[in-house]
Write a structure and sequence with these properties.
It is built from 13 helices and eight strands. It folds into two domains: about 180 residues, Rossmann fold; about 100 residues, N-(1-d-carboxylethyl)-l-norvaline Dehydrogenase, domain 2, CATH 1.10.1040. The chain is globular. Helix 1 packs across helix 2 and helix 8 crosses helix 11.
Amino acid sequence: MKNVAVIGAGTMGNGIAHTFAQKDYKVQLIDVSQASLDKGMATIAKNLDRMVAKERITEEEKQRTLSNITTYTSLEEGVEYAGLVVEAATENVDLKLKIFKDLDTFCPDDTILASNTSSISITQIAAATSRPEMVIGMHFMNPVPIMKLVEIIKGYSTSQETYSTVAEISEKLGKIPVEVNDYPGFVANRILMPMINEAIETLYNGVAGVEEIDTVMKLGMAHPMGPLQLADFIGLDVCLSILNVMYNGFKNPKYAPCPLLVNMVMAGKKGVKSGEGFYDYSESRKAENVATMFK
């Protein structure tokens, strides 16, 4: 299983591709947009340059990592020889179901299909295929090349063999796999998103300002990043999607997204990706903030 296809060249997708390629897997990075692929590869190269500058890898290792990645705009061509597919597309149920239905058609019969979804039911995704026993959740954390955790989510029909294989691959990547049951939000986001949502509610209710809320959580709770800044890096649209999945899944009002979050997303204020969220991100500031995550 040395051929790995990664679907989606965005923040998570290019990070996952980078991580596999650095461990000498042959990676097929797939996206519908060539511009997105070019941007994703530029991000990988930039992050590798930082690692070279910090003497974590050599220039030779950087070049080998890049040479291990091939890009495709065709899903069918990109997954033709994949032993493992990791889907990292937008957190949208209908899109993921469509992708997995297509993967089931295009991939070899023994290909494991994994989703990097941060909240959507693996059982539901698996039901779109004829191989539910080979569908699993592989939820990486951002930034993927740095963060150690991988949540491994077994759907209702996921086999133990599939789980064991994916857990072993995660360890080969230098990650720590943690088995999680298939409920909305899993563990990471079931705990994280209500905290972020409550921080937004605290701002919405006028208890304190953005920097004050983040400072309290950083200095008082030893968080490396305040919840509002973290929301900006995750993407406010992604936070909203995850909260909606949990709210719809549990029918519990504690997961209902704050009106301020809803309005900001509708206004196009999505955080770092849009240049503005709870903080303002000029190009220089954006580069500075992203760089701090790779220290």
